[in-house]
């Protein structure tokens, strides 16, 4: 079998980005949560907030470290596997990605150290300020990355001269048409991810009866936030969908599994898209629902995949199913949030073991939803790398052979496999031994210890800290 | 916009960034290379503790250089990375393993097998990353096969006898930076070990430096012209390099502590400058200059504003963290 460097490069990029993405999605939300905890502690002086801030800062440190390591690899992949793309779009992509790096450095240099190691060493107000700045910083990074990504979906503010993109308007290019929706959708996804992870961990602590006071506060807070955010996210997603309808109708048609342009299109709950036959083999749908959602009219016109020639169509089944996975998980999250509201009466959210167990399990769902949504939007763009302007095939490195691409794909899978295993293993240890009186007594680092993110945790990798004598 | 030569400014910024990277990450990669040969586990603790606070700050220069290249000289990015495809992968994999080893080695307390595993990740990661960087330099000297600004060579073009030599050269050079750094940061038997190791490494570097100096003009007509042509003045750079080597030898003999490290840094600095001067203004040899490889001026300017704003902070932070962690690292200190 001939190895296809293009396909392997796409797989490789998808793999590396998916691996990387789960960490920032989590840390962006968590950074804001930590800032809120600091603010609450500053205002009320209740040490429970401080205990929570301590635990989550440690978790943040480890996840942040993982994100940085995997991000470095990603930045080089543009050049190794997509050199034509890099060369053509560097006038826009280069400065944007650099600004992301520069922002991240600036914040790491200035505030991350204070947040991670400043407890008891800098005034409480300064510590709070650093926490807020780190939270803001994560958003500035998100701003640049999502602007670059959105631009690839809805390019604007550029002209192509001899195969090279030149920026004609920075504001149009940066604030391209899909950017506001993508940024809002992603930012909310980050908050929801952080919310479900914190809720899940707090639920577990409550189940085993550890630091009940603090974890009840955390759980209640998260559930209020999720109650507001999960339905709002559905609304934001709907707006994003309308934007996609306007700018990337083929992607939207693939999400709907709608082959022919038609009026009064149903929303398909289940279908078996057959790309070769250019139709669905089987479908069950709610009549008129897609038209109603997308055009707010029963008989509104919904575009079909067939508007694009077969070679310009995305992989329909993949887009169709990942979209449903994301939406389905979204509704599940809304449902859990509503159950939370119902169980508030009589404080049952703290006592219902079944609910707490459910929350524990729910902590992985936002990650799956984010990855599914990401696959939907990125595969839905195929075959375009820069929508309507440059295809994947045009962007890939010309000298790349299938063998090379396969070698590095397997290599990255192996490297990340080891790192991910070590990292998550360690993260679960931090959580497992967190929120215990004993650990807080062990003030490990004095001021002259290394200021690396992971140094913020003193949990050992292998032995049991509850038995270690320090 | 014509008032400034933006490409020249960017060449200086990126040149500076690469130099900072080589000088600063060099010694911590070097310690990784020396790791398996360390006298004992305590010595390894000291070695790692001596760089733990600063190594990732050192590596940020690599990322800054990479991102800056994409923005300012995209041609370099899109020729070098495909040409060095396998090498880049090895370097990244090396750096990733090494970075995680830094964190987890300290947190593996009881289980010796775990600790040995992270030791190995650290030393192999460092050695591979160093070799790959040296091979990049070799490939840069030899030049790239391009057509219309696109790399057209094969996957292993970068692996030539010459680039293997430069790869090994950098490994030994970094190891030398490692021993002289350790002389500065340690004491007792660890320092004695570092003192003992420095002269043989120095001789090895000298031999490789000599071979490369003879080989380079032979594989490269531009360098030949430059060295033996009108600008003979650049001989001052290799002369200064040799002087630095002598100072390393002399100061190690006298058991000086700071001087060997400083002189080794000087060695790297002058070799680097010599390389730059020999190739200037070629940035993708043999065909493209910094102006050929430049991105659009509006893009260069757009990023320049941000970088000029942040650079002082990054530099300040760098100096600050070295200042905070100045002084000797002792056995049993540092972080556990």
Automatic annotation (TrEMBL), chain A:
Q: Which UniProt keywords apply?
A: Cell membrane, Electron transport, Heme, Iron, Membrane, Metal-binding, Oxidoreductase, Transmembrane, Transmembrane helix, Transport
Q: Name one GO molecular function term.
A: oxidoreductase activity, acting on diphenols and related substances as donors, oxygen as acceptor
Q: Where is the signal peptide?
A: none
Annotated family? Belongs to the cytochrome ubiquinol oxidase subunit 1 family.
What is one process in the GO biological process aspect for this record?
aerobic electron transport chain
Say yes or no: keyword Iron present. yes
Compositionally biased spans, kind Basic and acidic residues: 442-451
Sorted alphabetically, the Gene Ontology cellular component annotations on this record are: cytochrome complex; plasma membrane
Lineage of origin? Bacteria, Pseudomonadati, Pseudomonadota, Gammaproteobacteria, Oceanospirillales
Which enzyme type, at the first EC level? oxidoreductase
Q: What is this protein called?
A: Cytochrome bd ubiquinol oxidase subunit 1
Membrane topology qualifier? Multi-pass membrane protein
Q: Which InterPro entries match?
A: Cyt-d_ubiquinol_oxidase_su_1
Q: Which residues form a coiled coil?
A: none
The protein's gene is named: cydA
Q: Which residues cross the membrane?
A: 12-34, 55-76, 96-118, 125-146, 183-206, 218-236, 318-343, 355-375, 404-428
Q: Where is this region: Disordered?
A: 442-470
Give the primary localization class: membrane
- Which EC number(s) are documented for this chain? 1.10.3.-
Subcellular localization(s) per the UniProt record: Cell inner membrane; Cell membrane
UniProtKB/TrEMBL annotation, chain B:
Q: Name one Pfam family in it.
A: Cyt_bd_oxida_II
Q: What class of enzyme is it?
A: oxidoreductase
Q: Name one GO molecular function term.
A: electron transfer activity
Q: What is its main location?
A: membrane
Q: What is its EC number?
A: 1.10.3.10
Similarity comment: Belongs to the cytochrome ubiquinol oxidase subunit 2 family.
Record protein name field: Cytochrome bd-II ubiquinol oxidase subunit 2
Q: Which organism is it from?
A: Halomonas chromatireducens
Q: Which gene encodes it?
A: appB
